[in-house]
Amino acid sequence: MRPVSGKSGRLWGRIGGIVHGTLIASLLTETKFHLVSSQRLMGKFMTAFLQAPALARNRSTLLVIAAGIVGWVALNLAVLKLANGFLPFDRPNMAGAPFGVQMAMPTLGLIEQLALMGLVWLLTRKREPVDMAARAPAVRRAWAETLGLLAYAMAAQVGGWLLGPALGYRPFSFHIAGTLVGCSVLASPGEALVWAGYNFFAFALVPYLWFRRRYTDRDLNLISSNRLGDWLVIAAVLIVESAVQLAAMPGVFKMSPEAFMKAAPIAFLLYFFGTVLPTMVLIYAILLPRYLKLTGSTALSVILGGLTYALMHLVEGWSLFTSPRDIALSLLFVFVSYTGPGMFKAYVTLRTGNAWVHALGYHAVAPHVIVDAPMIAKVFRIV
């Protein structure tokens, strides 16, 4: 075959540039057409083709993030509109804070959670990526399990709303009344213990035993693939979050050392069984891999993890249900308050493949010992 030269050579050079920028030089340096083989052209086409999905994924991620920002702004605007300058919730620890500060705190918290995500990324950037979607079943079964578990979780949550008043207590949620923000009427020791027992049984033990029949602990994100790396993340997050919590809510400094030493283990165990294990098993061990399998998007899975975490706190100790306005305001403020923390828990679990990391670094101690030990001391009459 004739060598490629002159106008023909320039034409091939232009075609090569369209196919892939780096192909221009290789085509122009060839003097024999047969050396510019179909295999090389196909290779360049395949390279460009394989890069296209990555660009599409980046675009979809940006769209998810943009939608999340718009949703967050809309949620806060709705709360502002309904509140009309006053949040009527039973939150004694926040009673002295101006309305603007109370409204700003969830967004400031979200900024801190995004910064913590950056810290986690920095600590895990050199680790082997975890293919969490591979831990979930095929799409059809993943849909069935996800919808079934969410339906069960909502039914169990309704069960807690009914059981508490039936026993003379308040409706049970993922938090005992007074958690983080205080309450005008403290829970009794019996209420606290029954709350922890019910949540552990309904949201941790039953789902775990059901799914453990078919899946391994590794499939459920309960086995570490990098213990040293996971402990490094736990320690770093715990130190930073503890400092933030102590700066924002320093009530623990008003306790005597003796009272804190007595209350801290009770707070740890009570919240560990009442909310830490239920949160970890239900959302981040079981649902999160299925969210990733069904969406194929890390960003969307993080947001879904946050929304699910908020969904499991629909009735808090501070909630008001005396009027349609109060109901709407209470439900909206739950999502303002808990979506951010739930998103961080999802992100750190996706980065490490280990649901225990968020449980130990960002839940069991900070905040539920550091912030809630003073309340637990009052509940159990520890002086």
Automatic annotation (TrEMBL):
The chain crosses the membrane at residues 62-83, 103-123, 143-163, 192-211, 231-253, 265-287, 294-315, 327-348. Keywords: Membrane, Transmembrane, Transmembrane helix. The keyword Transmembrane helix applies. This is Uncharacterized protein.
